[in-house]
């Protein structure tokens, strides 16, 4: 791929929540393609491009940790917000955290590091001035300088992701020896089709030498 | 009000003396510990709670500074008035734009914590959400901490049944404290997300103020003495930023002062904070708030 990018990302903690275990959250063993896409988009994204994740490499051994926190159990509805807006006053438009409380555990990943390989394609929103080179330049320039639209994160915002652009064949480092053998990771979330009523798509992930090949995803709006 | 035009990162140091900064519900309210390293932890949401509490204390009910996630103790039940749904067909989805955007913008204008931290405020899936510009990580202690269990007695019992059972008429309780712990938290403020929620320069000042003073207004039996020790802010010239966050964070070193490096730390004076100015790239200004 002429216009692919490679990004080294790492952090202390990560939580890529499994959709089947999200009340007491349990993380996938590795980063999902959709989380990787979120990281790349945090650095540069425009409606005229769509990021496609090609491969993810896991560099660190997979280790878990748990953390339990007090959380609120409900949200305020759009309807109540609307009626408060109409009435121009906000009394009652609050969540009481100590009444509406849940304690939830999360099983999170520790000390993660990945390499994301991705490219982008132009969408039908691309205007005349949108050339592939331009967006690639913007992305590379930002990633090189550590610039970002907002700080990227590993699954949830409290776990910030540090990043570094891997230029011209530069290698982050070798994956940990525990990752060399082929490993089946089971069915993992690939991404969510937002054009098709938030349909989740899954793929069978397997990892060898840390590499997870991400298949192309057939979305309603085109392949991703 | 103009929204902020710069990206920021900050390193926030706070300490606890003879107290429990953040109890772990999984471990009988022991101070949170990283099981691998025994470093103490304070969650991001714990700090955000204190920021919210400080803002509602300072601003009371000043317009535009309401707090969306309230602690009930701060309010009375009068506020809990009913508000009726409108005649529009109830739907789990946020109304289509421009109504939806108006609604979100209005919420941002009224509530400080939505402007700063964002909020999920609809019952639908993925709608009416805002991401705020302010993002906090977990705070962890500079060195491993050792929690102590302190047994205490109460010279009374709760009810008659207990009174009959126990001749001495007193109860024993337990407290978990850390003799001392210095914690370091990292924060991120995105100028681009601030544009969307209207997080202004004034809001930013209020955030710095709350980080400065929030522990002063959060005294309790459990917390012991907690104090904000240092707030170092990195201001990027460019809204997207001029340097990677980790490079900036690496420029701040918190180490034990050499003279008593072998003894357990019992105060902030046991530590030295240094800023390696040479590692801060051009385009980034370091501001020591205190």
UniProtKB/TrEMBL annotation, chain A:
Enzyme Commission number(s) of this protein: 3.1.-.-
Keywords in alphabetical order: Antiviral defense, Endonuclease, Hydrolase, Nuclease, RNA-binding
UniProt-recorded name of the protein: pre-crRNA processing endonuclease
Function: CRISPR (clustered regularly interspaced short palindromic repeat) is an adaptive immune system that provides protection against mobile genetic elements (viruses, transposable elements and conjugative plasmids). CRISPR clusters contain spacers, sequences complementary to antecedent mobile elements, and target invading nucleic acids. CRISPR clusters are transcribed and processed into CRISPR RNA (crRNA).
BP terms from Gene Ontology: defense response to virus; maintenance of CRISPR repeat elements
Gene3D superfamilies for this protein: 3.30.70.2660
Transmembrane segments: none
Family indicated by similarity: Belongs to the CRISPR-associated protein Cas5 family. Subtype I-C/Dvulg subfamily.
Plastid recorded as keyword: no
UniProt entry tagged with the keyword Nuclease: yes
Pfam families (alphabetical): Cas_Cas5d (PF09704)
Protein species of origin: Caballeronia humi
UniProt-recorded Gene Ontology molecular function terms: endonuclease activity; hydrolase activity; RNA binding
InterPro entries assigned: CRISPR-assoc_prot_Cas5, CRISPR-assoc_prot_Cas5_N, CRISPR-assoc_prot_Cas5d
Gene: cas5
TrEMBL record, chain B:
Highest taxon above the source species: Bacteria
Chain segments annotated as transmembrane: none
Descriptive protein name: Type I-C CRISPR-associated protein Cas7/Csd2
Swiss-Prot/TrEMBL GO biological process terms: maintenance of CRISPR repeat elements
Matches recorded under InterPro entries: Cas7_Csh2/Csh2, CRISPR-assoc_prot_Cas7/Csd2
Pfam family, one: Cas_Cas7
